[in-house]
Amino acid sequence: MIDLDTPYALSAAHIAQFRRDGFIKLKDVLSPETLAHYGAEITRLTIALNTEQRPLEERSTYDKAFLQVMNLWEQSPLVGRFVMGQRLGRIAAELLQVGGVRLYHDQSLYKEPGGGITPAHADQYYWPLASDRTVTAWIPLQAVPEAMGPLGFYARSQSVEFGRDLGISDESEDKISANMARHGFEFVSGAFELGEVSFHLGWTFHKAGANVSDRPRSVMTVIYMDAAMRLVPALNPVQANDRDQWCPGAREGEVIATRKNPVVWQRA
Fold first, then answer.
1. I want to staple 39 with a disulfide (CB 3.0 to 4.6 A). Which of 51, 141, 149, 256 is the partner?
2. Are 80 and 234 in contact (CB under 8 A)?
3. What PANTHER family does the database record attribute to this sequence (predicted)?
């Protein structure tokens, strides 16, 4: 069944777990048929629109981690239908405990065979947003065994301020991983079954291993924010870039209601 809109049976225990740990992995969120139907187009566009042509050995740690293409929803009506799906949007809103969510942007992540680690980081370093009511849905388009580099999370790290000023880099991997270990934060990692989707807060620290398999790891991500989210002044150049790219025309102090940030799901 190709279905993007029916509600997922999210329980009070799921919401409590997410609030405590800053992430959750949910099984059977999307059917194999749905992932095959939309995943082929997502993968095709990622390969076609990617601009990274250097061999892996010539790239930085960041560039070895994955090929990435942003806002595929604007490139294809089929991908647009996927990104605006009510099922994922409702899960995001219920986990965040907000009345609705907007799109911040989408991002495909294609970790090539032999692709390197994704260093430890927190996504919200890049975002000029007024609150922590942000969540990323990490949606594998196939099963992800350990050898392909599944995403892992530092449980309960969403309140840790150390490392929030570090972008994805060798430095972030070394410093954040060491700080997490020093303070005893559990790193939770493991394979993703087909149809399993994770959701993590913008300030939850996370990372992924290298892809040591002979197959690519194709993943789609959708970043949601509270529908009432306001823009704040950029704290660094990458936030200024994100503001200009993903929130064009938004004004500081006002709700980010631009053409690129439609409401995906709203409670009736």
1. 141
2. no
3. PHYTANOYL-COA DIOXYGENASE, PHYTANOYL-COA DIOXYGENASE DOMAIN CONTAINING 1
